[in-house]
Amino acid sequence: MPTENQAVRLLDELGLTEYEARCFVALSRVQKASASEIHTLSDVPRSRVYDSVERLHRKGLVDIQQTEPRQYRALPRDTVLDRLREQYASTLEATDAALSKLRRAKGLEEQGAWAIADHDNVTDRTGLLLEDATNEIYVLIADEDMLDDELCDRLAAASESGVTVLIEVPSEETAARIRSHVPDAAVATTALAADPARLEGKWLSRILLVDRRAVLLSALSDGTRPSNTEETAICSEGPDHGLVVGIRQLLGTRLDRGAVFD
């Protein structure tokens, strides 16, 4: 069962201050209590109890009985959770609205290579790079598990918008799958993607080159549990960064020769 400390911590994560959370947890243990009793139950300094329960009252989480001394009671748990949920959602919406109005400074571009941890974050960054493509997308899939429906849909959307999509995969079976999802893409099988070598428990997962100015290079490694893998990546944007220049030179030469996708 959750302890009082756990309840305080969780309420804190939902936006209450520590004193507010401790006062609320104390009130949840009794039918009602005075400020002095809340102080005893919660160990919140008595001088801070008053303003804490007043804020809880303004948030709609606590009722106040105008007696002498004043009595306080916590509202029913379901009511409290509904109000916290509404406040949390409202805060998220306001944050989204504020962030959406921010504009990047003109002339500034991401510099350097950025390390990305966790498969979901790698997938999100891949999606953003694909959405920003205006001319050409090159993808090398070394681990076929990385080719999920979401990636196929993003590649198809880019292709339909007029972006040239070039994909190299390790097997003809995977190539056929891509052709069915992205019929206008140029797809080829390559030894570069077949049976990637392992180095210290890591192996190549995928390479993404977008408009020859953004690179994402990811690798898989054995996870902490059996049959579980973890993906990490390095991503760089900007035509002059060393990683971009190197990958662009290695892959661009192959692509420009035209033999890969004949």
Which secondary-structure class do the elements indicate?
A: alpha+beta
CATH topology of the largest domain: Endonuclease, Chain A
Count of separate DSSP helical elements: 9
CATH architecture of the largest domain: 2-Layer Sandwich
Let me know the CATH homologous superfamily of the largest domain: Endonuclease Chain A
How would you explain this protein's 3D organization?
- 45% of the residues lie in helices and 22% in strands.
- The chain has 262 residues and is an alpha+beta fold.
- The chain has 2 domains: 4-98, Winged helix-like DNA-binding domain superfamily/Winged helix DNA-binding domain (Arc Repressor Mutant, subunit A), CATH 1.10.10; 113-257, Endonuclease, Chain A.
- The mean pLDDT is 85.
- It comes from Natrinema soli.
- Residues 11-76 form the Transcription regulator TrmB N-terminal domain.
- This is TrmB family transcriptional regulator.
Could you outline the blueprint of secondary structure elements for this entry?
Layout: H1 4-13, H2 18-28, H3 35-42, H4 46-58, E1 62-65, E2 71-74, H5 77-100, E3 113-117, H6 119-132, E4 136-141, H7 149-160, E5 164-169, H8 172-181, E6 186-189, E7 198-199, E8 202-210, E9 214-222, E10 229-237, H9 242-257
Parallel strand pairs: 4-5, 5-6
Antiparallel strand pairs: 1-2, 3-10, 4-8, 7-8, 8-9, 9-10
InterPro entries: TrmB-like, Tscrpt_reg_TrmB_N, WH-like_DNA-bd_sf, WH_DNA-bd_sf
Pfam families: TrmB
Organism: Natrinema soli
